[in-house]
Amino acid sequence: MNIVILGASALATAQRLKALYPQAVIHGLRGRADGAERHYDEFGEHLRALYRADQPLVVLCAAGIVIRSLAALLAEKGAEPPVLALAEDGSAVVPLLGGLAGVNRLAREIAAHLGVTPAITTSGELRFGTCLLEPPAGYALADLQQGKRFVSDLLGGETVRIEGQAPWLEAAQLPVDNAASRIIHITPETRPAQPDELLIHPRSVAVLIDRPSADLPARLQQALSTTNLAPQALACLLAEKSWMANTELHAAAAELKLPLRFIHSTSELPPEHHAGDGLHLLLSEQPLDIERLGQRRGRLSVVGLGPGAAEHMTPAVRRALDEAEDLLGYDTYVKMAGPLRADQCLHPSDNREELQRAAHAFELAASGRRVVMISSGDPGVFAMAAAVMEALESPQSEAWQGVELEVLPGVSAALATAAKAGAPLGHDFCLISLSDNLKPWAVIEKRLEHAALADLAMAFYNPISKSRPWQLGRALDLLHQHRAPETLVVLGRDIGRPAEALRSLTLGELTPEMVDMRTLVIIGSSQTRRFPRADGGEWVYTPRWYPALTTD
Ligand code: SAH
């Protein structure tokens, strides 16, 4: 959800809303709403961009302003997310758009939280106490146009009877009459739209796939039409666990927008089924509770948070964190990954045994859970991604191969520090970890020497720590043999975090005492330069060009 405010006066209400939806993001006009998490410059443009992103949108200003800003988009086909106007002081909630995306439900939820009455204006919903066009989870409307006609007939005074099981309609105030000519039919069967009926399909059919193939959607279509079942009645695709990583299966599920569940053996399934072309259609009386059918394919996302500030985290990482059920990583990074929800399971550790942590992540993911392994910066730069790969190359269990594994990049400390300083890594550079925990010190010395001889700019990670007190000093001694004392150096400490500190100096001035384990050290090349910034301080950069090599 996105919450948009214009000025600081709306911030308190926006924050009350955020208490209800912790994942929501508060957007504020730059310079007028400092407490917002994201800032925009042009209200209308920003609102339209958020609308196109197809996420629920709550705007704390006059309804008219919202309507005028979005008007041009309404003719477009495509997204129609819920849009609500909310009075700055929280005294009124007006659902504006997204009737079929649950805007009234949201309005009720928000109104209940703020202790006010929502401004519901949908006649059918007011009269019947339910939105017939938006059946609850587990049911799907067959045809929207037919549905709209049907509801307007009922509003015009027609009575109705119900055939099939529609437990949610029992509490509604429908004009029920057992002799009525209008019928609400709850059935998995398909048939052409009739003007006198509202067809609602329970999602009560599961499809067991013996043999995935590229033409799976077409085969399924065929099986449905021979058995006379509606596509909307499909609840999920099922397959045995050995197919978990099969790409055709996942492509079909994505194309058909159906969840995919995996079972050990067919004995887990409801008994009744119709066979067809390598497919079995399993029909149940009720909508299927797919959470209780086999398990889904687990996912392990290895993510990089970036250096620290939320705005330097990629949207893909934010999404993975929001979707995670389990989060693993160093304590500090797990804390940096917020906002998190109370239902998310945290496994923070100060455990340096990365392989063990990777194994734990695979075990959780292999049981069907959504797992995120957190690194700071980029996960592939002296962090967890390589440990996860190492674990998977020699898996402790075959089930690990079924896990959906993804590595999501982040802004690494060297890049974040360089950006703060200007562009010291603007030409060829290398990244070196000065930690000799997992590689011999001799290897590090050799690399430093070669990098110095090659006149590469260098970024040092893990430059020093209590258990590695002398290594940086040795590295600097070595650099002094090949680089002039005027060589520029940038020190970035806690970049992107509240305690951020940036410093530029020369190699001649640099001593190990200036550096700690939260510092990233950039050593410039012979070409790295600096010049004063207009606002004080200085810019450091390495030019894109290089003087021709001279031979002497
Ligand atoms: N995966 C991380 C690096 C982990 S190694 C990344 O891509 O950034 C840990 C080292 O990274 C630290 O010792 C420090 O040298 C550097 N580092 C990580 N975050 C930093 C930050 N916010 N500011 C400065 N240096 C940082």
UniProtKB/TrEMBL annotation:
The lineage of its organism: Bacteria, Pseudomonadati, Pseudomonadota, Gammaproteobacteria, Pseudomonadales. Pfam families: CbiG_N, TP_methylase. PANTHER family: COBALT-FACTOR III C(17)-METHYLTRANSFERASE-RELATED. CDD domains: Precorrin_3B_C17_MT (cd11646). It comes from Pseudomonas berkeleyensis. This is Precorrin-3B C(17)-methyltransferase. Residues 45-124 form the Cobalamin synthesis G N-terminal domain. Its EC number is 2.1.1.131. It is an enzyme of class 2 (transferase). Residues 300-510 form the Tetrapyrrole methylase domain. Signal peptide: none annotated.
